[in-house]
């Protein structure tokens, strides 16, 4: 469970988040949508303990500030938008970084750590890449390796910042289906950000529309993905088509008159 009360973030003297309240129930999936610069990544970084903030963030009922680094790493795994890629590091070693909270100080990874990393590489079609340097992978392969590292961490909360932006449509579905399966089978709690609104609505139980650092709307996808809200906050011309899997968002081009 993730709970934010009146969270404010100021970066370099500018207030970016202006008092955000948010609740993600254990085992549910919430996706934050909103235009560029709205503060989506900032919000995720605050929840991941990567940024100072005012207000309160609690994870599984414990205030973030009270969690030690290692405890936090057992609870929450983050896939940032642009993770640091250590030059020359193999995909397997990178994914094993996700096991750090389980490895004793000055110790080595156990057979259990290696098995967890191998299983997750396999699930993400990356088995054949284990020995390759991460910085030689294609953008989409690398993005799956970033997710693999986070999943290897086996945390109860997963924070995903634009996790499928570099993926082809098939791998997009594979990755999101896998996350959803982990949510259903293991009670994983998911907080994501996404720009593809149709896909956002297909996977999340609730969407939060963040605009200029404030929650502009929150609720089930059909309540948030409306033509008027998208026009107001994205300045976009779209048609919303209702489908059994949720609203489908079709961008409309301006026609010269
Ligand atoms: N260190 C910083 N100092 C000042 N402003 C910052 C800093 N980091 C981010 N910002 C600003 O904070 C705002 C929110 O950024 P953030 O990355 O959270 O937006 P976002 O909603 O994730 O956008 P996008 O959809 O483009 O990824 C932006 O206007 C950004 O320029």
From TrEMBL:
SMART domains: AAA. One of its GO terms (molecular function) is ATP binding. Residues 2-237 form the ABC transporter domain. It comes from the Bacteria. Keywords: ATP-binding, Nucleotide-binding. Gene3D superfamilies: P-loop containing nucleotide triphosphate hydrolases (3.40.50.300). InterPro entries: AAA+_ATPase, ABC_transporter-like_ATP-bd, ABC_transporter-like_CS, P-loop_NTPase. PANTHER family: ABC TRANSPORTER ATP-BINDING PROTEIN, HEMIN IMPORT ATP-BINDING PROTEIN HMUV. This is ABC transporter ATP-binding protein. It comes from Luedemannella flava.
């Amino acid at each position: 469970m993730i709970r934010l009360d009146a969270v404010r973030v100021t970066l370099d003297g500018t207030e970016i988040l202006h008092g955000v309240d948010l609740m993600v129930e254990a085992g549910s999936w919430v996706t934050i949508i909103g235009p560029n610069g709205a503060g989506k990544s900032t919000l995720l970084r605050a929840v991941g303990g990567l940024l100072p903030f005012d207000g309160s963030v609690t994870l599984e009922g414990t205030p973030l500030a009270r969690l030690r680094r290692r405890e936090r790493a057992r609870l929450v795994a983050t896939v940032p938008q642009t993770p640091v890629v250590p030059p020359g590091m193999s995909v397997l070693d990178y994914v094993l970084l996700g096991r750090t909270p389980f490895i004793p100080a000055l110790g080595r990874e156990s057979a259990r750590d290696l098995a967890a990393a191998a299983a997750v590489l396999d699930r993400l079609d990356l088995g054949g890449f284990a020995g390759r340097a991460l910085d030689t992978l294609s953008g989409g392969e690398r993005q799956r390796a970033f997710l693999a590292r986070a999943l290897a961490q086996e945390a109860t909360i997963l924070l995903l910042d634009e996790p499928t932006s570099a993926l082809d449509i098939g791998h997009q579905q594979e990755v999101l289906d896998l996350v959803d399966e982990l949510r259903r089978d293991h009670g994983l709690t998911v907080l994501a950000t996404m720009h593809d609104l149709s896909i956002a609505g297909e996977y999340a139980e609730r969407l939060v529309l963040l605009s200029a650092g404030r929650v502009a709307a929150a609720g089930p996808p059909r309540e948030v993905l409306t033509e008027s809200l998208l026009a107001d906050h994205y300045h976009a011309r779209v048609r919303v088509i209702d489908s059994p899997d949720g609203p489908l968002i079709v961008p409309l081009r301006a026609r010269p008159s």
